[in-house]
Amino acid sequence: MVFSLLMSMMDRGFCDIVSILLTKEINFDQNHWDGETPLFKAVRRGYTDVVELLLKKNANPNFPACLTWLNRIKKYIWSTTAIQIFAIRTKLSPLYVAAWEGNIEILGLLLSYNSDPNICNTDKQSVLHLATCNGRADIVKLLLQHKINSNACDVQHQSSLYIVSFKRCTEIVKLLLDYNSDPNICNKENKSPLFVASSKGYTEIVKLLLDHNSDPNICYKVNKSPLFAAFSNGHTEIVKLLLEHNSDPNICDKENKSLLFVASSKGRIEIVKLLLDHNSDPNISDKDIKSPLFAASSKGHTEIVRLLLEHNSDPNICN
Fold first, then answer.
1. Cα distance between residue 17 and residue 5, in whole Å
2. To which H or E segment does residue 75 belong?
3. Prediction pTM value
4. Domain 117-217 class in CATH
5. Residue-wise pLDDT tens digits, 257-279
6. Does the keyword section mention ATP-binding (predicted)?
7. Is the dihedral of CA 245, 251, 253, 258 positive or negative?
């Protein structure tokens, strides 16, 4: 009875009455019919004082939201918020909800009472994943200071560093790297943070990743390297950067086409020069035994033909 009254008063925002009810003997680590614990509800509604009172009374900061009365879900779902539905479905912790709501004060409070920052939801998303997705550098920093695992991956095997590299959150990329996030963790398609940053033309992020030992030769599942991705999307500055950091220009795709072959075929003389200056092999042929020289000749790129011949391209390779 007291528990139901407590939850009802919290729903209505009567925090003074809630404070009085909290003096009673109540099991705080139980789910109401709506799936929420008192602490979960207080966190979601942003009642900082109530959160602190509950934590002082030893409410478990890691106890998740969980629907216990399944037959009520259809009735309940019409009056519920997106976060409540998601929380119940994926068994979120109060800490996750505080991050979702962006309430850094409550987040800090929960962490000070030993809330585990490494608990993930059923999609293997950690609180850090959520903070990075939302671009909240302040929350990311707080979590890193509390020793959250910065290399945890979600069901798509995306690390937090991958997410912020993709979303161009440069400040958070730097934060994660400063706290020893591994830049070489790839997603399910074997795309690294460097691959996505190179593909999208995020020069500053590419620099940061390379300065923190990101491997420039990890290839996407179709055997395309970050160098290939940067070239394909017209990011010449990043092509230069990658070559300066020992990116291998002789990695070929699944058709055995080297980057020099593709650049020669497309008439990209500035890229051809760059590649040849960084030891690109002019005699690697594709699966049809066509060389870069053949590709340039067949497209009428005379200057590139001359350049390739000056760099010992073999004119006698036949397809």
1. 10
2. helix 73-76
3. 0.83
4. mainly alpha
5. 999 999 999 999 999 999 999 99
6. no
7. positive
